[in-house]
Design brief:
The chain has 214 residues and is α/β, with parallel strands linked by helices. It contains 8 helices and 10 strands. 36% of the residues lie in helices and 23% in strands.
């Protein structure tokens, strides 16, 4: 993704509240960071979701994608939006299917979906790729079926260490790449400058109840 496209995606994500930057946030591990992603807020505004999906289409419109695959959680809305826009952009119907995750975080497809993807070119998508696991395991699930070719992957937001090698993908579109670094309390630069902890997301409220504001 070029810089202007990343800026456009950042603007949309900030507008809908899915991305907060230049703040002071607390993760469940009680580590501190200046950036917070609320992946669940990527999906409710359908107009904005389709706008975000259009950037995935821009990256893959010429790859003859036939199936868009996500997990069966909220990201399935992203897969459906992407498939619809890819269909409109080309001369073929692109379908969206999802994979179910087991307790070991491995993915599998329902037998009906497995029949639909056999012999087709598949794009795997995720909302927030905090690490490579989801995209990698979605691709593995797709490749377990006959003659499936995984053409690549896409994530709306991805940490900088999520790449093609780690995801085991031939290509990867990161609509917005984050350079996140988390700190423990004793070395947090935001605590040292007395930056107020955001209590509305993450574990900020619990942390402040236990430790107070910096």
């Amino acid at each position: 993704m070029d810089e202007s496209d990343q800026d456009a995606v950042r603007h949309v994500l900030t507008q809908i509240g899915a991305l907060r930057e230049n703040g002071h946030f607390i993760f469940p591990s009680y580590q501190h960071c200046d950036t917070y992603v609320s992946e669940e807020l990527i999906y409710p505004d359908i107009g904005k979701l389709y706008l975000i999906a259009s950037f995935i289409v821009k990256a893959y419109h010429d790859q003859e994608v036939e199936v868009v695959l996500s997990d069966c959680d909220a990201a399935y809305a992203l897969a459906q939006a992407t498939a619809y826009l890819l269909s409109n952009a080309g001369s073929r119907t692109v379908i969206a299917v999802c994979a179910e995750r087991d307790t070991n975080y491995n993915y599998s497809l329902h037998s009906s979906y497995a029949r639909l993807i056999a012999g087709r070119r598949v794009l795997v998508v995720d909302g927030y790729a905090e690490n490579a696991k989801c995209l990698k395991r979605l691709a593995k699930a797709a490749r377990s079926h006959a003659d499936v070719e995984v053409v690549g992957g896409a994530a709306v937001i991805a940490n900088a260490n999520v790449n093609t090698d780690r995801c085991e993908l031939p290509s990867l579109a990161r609509l917005l790449t984050l350079q996140q670094r988390a700190y423990p309390k004793h070395s947090c630069p935001y605590c040292s400058t007395k930056r107020t902890i955001d209590e509305t997301v993450g574990h900020g409220d619990r942390y402040v109840r236990e430790h107070g504001q910096p």
